[in-house]
Design a protein that fits this description.
The chain is mainly beta. The protein contains 3 helices and 18 strands. A hairpin with a 5-residue loop joins strand 11 and strand 12.
């Protein structure tokens, strides 16, 4: 039966004479982002225990140049990982940074052993380039926000099975001459548009312009009840834009109230509510 390695979040004093604690061979961490992680803004620390020792995790954090500060697993319970098991720990993302160059992410654990405690730093794998993708997306968001803030603000149902999605465009102000062309919205797994898969927007703004309101008529793509009940990204529309001629695609920001209204509209338009 393997030994037990316990990871804790409180460092103990008086451990300087203890030899450094080695990470059990075969214990690895990878950064992944599942479909359900996108809307709440988080990633998962996937810990694979390929060692012969049991591991109990009480705290873990992720550091990367893409993150404005280390992202901590909000542990509500201990997580015991037996040899051969794989466990995902959800980590809410802090503010993101637009970075360049290669970045090696690190996971820091506090490890208790032999009556002492010390940090263990593990280089994290990122097989699907999650952090690089988050950085690229943040660069695109920054480019858009430098000219104007674009956000879905309201959902107004019609009598024909569609609803008007209101999109507020608030220029950033200042004397920048950069132009933001709002090209189109792209549909989601749950919703598309009366015009098809994309809704043309056809607006161009500069930082010094006055605020403007745009609308797009949305309609359900599918009406099966479980698709609405289990929705994860169905209210996250992609905004296609050009900033000084460079095309960018970012998620259209929307408050939770707008997401809830879109789901309620979908259920009503599909005849799933009284």
């Amino acid at each position: 039966m393997g030994a037990t390695l316990t990871l804790v979040g409180v460092a103990l004093a008086g451990c300087s004479a203890t030899p450094p604690l080695a990470v059990p061979p075969g214990l690895t961490v990878a950064v992944v982002q599942q479909r359900g992680d996108i809307a709440p803004g988080r990633v998962q620390l996937r810990i694979t225990n390929g060692s012969g020792e049991s591991v109990t995790v009480l705290a873990a954090s992720l550091a990367s140049a893409v993150l404005a500060e280390p992202a901590a697993w909000a542990a509500r319970r201990t997580e015991s990982i037996a040899p051969g098991r794989v466990v995902d720990l959800p980590v809410p993302l802090p503010a993101l940074a637009c970075t360049s160059g290669d970045d090696v992410a690190h996971v820091t654990l506090q490890v208790a052993a032999d009556g002492g405690s010390r940090s263990v730093d593990i280089a994290a794998d990122d097989p699907l380039n999650v952090l690089a993708r988050l950085s690229t997306t943040q660069c695109d968001r920054d480019a858009v926000e430098a000219v104007a803030h674009v956000e879905a603000t309201a959902v107004t149902p019609r009598d024909d099975g569609t609803a008007d999605l209101s999109i507020a465009v608030t220029p950033a102000g200042g004397d920048s001459t950069a132009e933001l062309a709002l090209v189109a919205l792209r549909g989601t797994p749950l919703l598309h548009f009366a015009t098809g898969e994309e809704a043309p927007l056809g607006a161009t703004v500069q930082a010094a312009d006055a605020p403007v309101m745009l609308t797009a008529a949305v309609t359900p793509r599918r009406c099966d009840p479980h698709a609405i009940a289990e929705d994860k990204v169905g209210t996250l529309f992609d905004l296609v834009a050009r900033v000084d001629g460079r095309e960018v695609v970012v998620s259209l920001p929307r408050p939770q109230a707008v997401a809830d209204d879109l789901l309620a509209f979908t259920a009503a338009a599909c005849g799933l509510t009284p």
